[in-house]
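We both want to read discrete structure tokens more fluently, so let's practise on a single case. Once you have written the record down, we can walk along the chain together.
***
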Amino acid sequence: MAGNRDEFVMRMKEELCQIDLELTDRQIDQFYQYYENLIHWNTMINLTAITEMGEVVTKHFVDSLTLKRAVGDIERISYSLIDVGTGAGFPGIPLKIAFPDLKITLLDSLNKRVKFLEELILSLELKGIKAVHGRAEDYARENVSRETFDLCVSRAVANISTLAEYCMPFVKTGCYFVAYKSGKIEEELIAGKGAIKKLSGEIEDVLSFRLPNSDERSLVKIKKIANINKKYPRRSGLPSREPLR
């Protein structure tokens, strides 16, 4: 496994350099432990279809860290951040490893994945991060979590209208939801403008770029400009079945 680890470290350092990020040896070691845990747990529960080491580095770890493009002061400020539909912990855990002062909540609807995340947090000795089992539609209605976060992020696969309804209720007024998107997104953004407006948001920026493997990515940065009507998010399933227009 030593050769494997050396290859991992070299790949991480090369690709981090391409996104202007430098991490300590300890942080890179945490990413390697994350990779090993991910592969081990993936044999027991379905966490990811991406398991080849180079692809995990690029498509999961480095992709998660590109949030730095949209939030330029993320290295200096202890933002509170919620990762909605975190799955195997992306982007929340890579962000916590790279920017340890962030206060992070990982939200996922599948208890098995939350158990994995809890074990991972212990294994990596991460502080100021918790994994929560719940649906965004329910968790966003609780007073302890509604409109309490500086940042909400999501790499979940859903259109921007649906994601905005799940995510915007978590964000404080004046703060941001950032959606990670892949491929061409122009039509999706046009279709989602009405929904974003209803959810008291406005698109402040769309940062499009390529990952080190040339995959197209975009970060859609949406600012919360007022409190959201309490009827949002609608009950379970509606945001995905009947997206706002």
